[in-house]
């Protein structure tokens, strides 16, 4: 982007990269804010708020924008009840589905800035954009504070930079095509100067980490499918809650959008449920395949789909992370990077021993990678509604990570051990098809 000197088409001085980054950040902040304001205005237009004053709605919009970015809000008017349950009165349950909006806007900005920058100049654009976005967050936190909602200005300034900065880096990397073009460091050249053993070890651990990612991605996909089936089965209960609320078309649409914003959180909750760790819907409650005990729930339609009652065969859901581990083990076999098995085979001649040990080590590493990733997802998905019992919502990160790590590890061992048989079956079917063609 360049500044024009006049309207004749002659280009003037190039726009400084820090200024272009600042404009991109301001554009992303305004667009994401408008997307938050739109449903609030729609509800206000249908007299959906008891207090429809402009400044009240403006504060609500700003607080919603901060919550979408992951900024915790201290509810000063929460009363003494949260303290009796060990809560802090903090609203920290982030709608991860809506957090994708600033992430995608930042991804677009990162691509545009990468096209406008040389390798050693991108930091100028990034620094300018991050400074403006941090200032926007701090200003929003300062303006939208109230007697009932206390906002930490440091959180308001720094926390929104996490999804925004991550989106910009991913977008810039996508546009550059490689990290070497993006930051000027040639990773391939650096790796080529290391020893062969170091390269093999790096490839092995990197492939094990990728296998953990494959396992978690597969488990989330299966958990999302189970969540869809559960919503279909309990659809009559969900509709009954909608009818009881009688929010009207606009209010119902706004409630649906809010629930869709929490859809990624619900998928992570479903993963925790299938792992056996379960998740909490309030202090002292637990929902899981081995037993469900929850107290009174707020009138939120999607909560009516929580499985309850007799769950005699719910333990079958525990196979979901194991199946995901089987997929990861098979993927690792096809990747062909089991250098630890090759090294162990050179040192020890007993093949039954080396194959068993290398497969078990792979299961431990794959399960560990999947468990760590699950811990991060569970930590992001959980939170507090800040009121009453609802100061603890979602899975326990450590407990869920341990369950997923153990189940995925077992699945990786099975998948890697059965991989050669699956490959032979696949090769045999291809050969049969070729013979039929001839």
TrEMBL record:
<dbReference type="Pfam" id="PF19877">
    <property type="entry name" value="DUF6350"/>
</dbReference>
<feature type="transmembrane region" description="Helical">
    <location>
        <begin position="25"/>
        <end position="44"/>
    </location>
</feature>
<feature type="transmembrane region" description="Helical">
    <location>
        <begin position="401"/>
        <end position="422"/>
    </location>
</feature>
<feature type="transmembrane region" description="Helical">
    <location>
        <begin position="149"/>
        <end position="172"/>
    </location>
</feature>
<keyword id="KW-1133">Transmembrane helix</keyword>
<keyword id="KW-0472">Membrane</keyword>
<feature type="transmembrane region" description="Helical">
    <location>
        <begin position="213"/>
        <end position="233"/>
    </location>
</feature>
<feature type="transmembrane region" description="Helical">
    <location>
        <begin position="353"/>
        <end position="381"/>
    </location>
</feature>
<dbReference type="InterPro" id="IPR045931">
    <property type="entry name" value="DUF6350"/>
</dbReference>
<feature type="transmembrane region" description="Helical">
    <location>
        <begin position="122"/>
        <end position="143"/>
    </location>
</feature>
<feature type="transmembrane region" description="Helical">
    <location>
        <begin position="253"/>
        <end position="275"/>
    </location>
</feature>
<feature type="transmembrane region" description="Helical">
    <location>
        <begin position="287"/>
        <end position="307"/>
    </location>
</feature>
<keyword id="KW-0812">Transmembrane</keyword>
<feature type="transmembrane region" description="Helical">
    <location>
        <begin position="313"/>
        <end position="333"/>
    </location>
</feature>
<feature type="transmembrane region" description="Helical">
    <location>
        <begin position="89"/>
        <end position="110"/>
    </location>
</feature>
<protein>
    <recommendedName>
        <fullName>Integral membrane protein</fullName>
    </recommendedName>
</protein>
């Amino acid at each position: 982007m360049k500044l024009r000197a006049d309207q004749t088409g002659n280009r003037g001085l190039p726009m400084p990269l820090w200024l272009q980054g600042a404009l991109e950040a301001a554009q992303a902040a305004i667009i994401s804010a408008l997307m938050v304001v739109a449903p609030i205005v729609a509800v206000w237009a249908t007299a959906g708020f008891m207090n429809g004053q402009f400044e009240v709605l403006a504060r609500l919009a700003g607080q919603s924008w901060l919550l979408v970015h992951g900024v915790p809000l201290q509810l000063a008017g929460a009363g003494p009840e949260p303290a009796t349950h060990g809560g802090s009165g903090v609203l920290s349950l982030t709608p991860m589905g809506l957090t994708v909006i600033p992430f995608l806007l930042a991804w677009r900005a990162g691509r545009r800035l990468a096209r406008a920058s040389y390798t050693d100049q991108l930091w100028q654009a990034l620094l300018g954009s991050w400074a403006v976005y941090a200032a926007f967050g701090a200003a929003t936190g300062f303006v939208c504070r109230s007697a009932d909602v206390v906002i930490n200005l440091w959180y308001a300034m720094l926390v929104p930079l996490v999804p925004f900065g991550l989106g910009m880096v991913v977008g810039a990397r996508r546009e550059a095509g490689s990290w070497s073009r993006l930051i000027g460091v040639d990773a391939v050249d650096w790796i080529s100067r290391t020893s062969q053993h170091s390269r093999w070890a790096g490839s092995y651990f990197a492939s094990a980490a990728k296998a953990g990612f494959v396992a978690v991605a597969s488990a989330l996909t299966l958990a999302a499918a189970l969540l869809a089936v559960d919503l279909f089965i309990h659809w009559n209960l969900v509709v009954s809650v909608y009818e009881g609320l009688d929010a009207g078309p606009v209010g119902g649409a706004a409630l649906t959008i809010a629930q869709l914003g929490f859809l990624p959180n619900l998928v992570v909750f479903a993963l925790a449920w299938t792992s056996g760790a379960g998740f909490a819907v309030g202090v002292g409650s637990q929902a899981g395949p081995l037993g469900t005990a929850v107290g009174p729930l707020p009138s939120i339609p999607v909560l009516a789909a929580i499985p309850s009652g007799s769950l005699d065969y719910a333990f079958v859901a525990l196979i979901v992370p194991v199946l995901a581990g089987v997929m990861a083990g098979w993927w690792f076999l096809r990747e062909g990077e089991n250098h630890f098995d090759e090294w162990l085979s050179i040192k020890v001649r007993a093949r039954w021993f080396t194959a068993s040990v290398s497969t078990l080590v792979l299961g431990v590493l794959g399960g560990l990678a999947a468990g760590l990733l699950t811990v991060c997802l569970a930590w992001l998905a959980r939170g507090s509604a800040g009121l009453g019992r609802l100061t603890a919502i979602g899975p326990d990160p450590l407990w869920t990570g341990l369950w997923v790590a153990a189940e995925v590890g077992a699945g990786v061992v099975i998948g890697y051990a059965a991989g050669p048989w699956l490959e032979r079956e696949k090769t045999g079917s291809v050969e049969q098809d070729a013979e039929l063609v001839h």
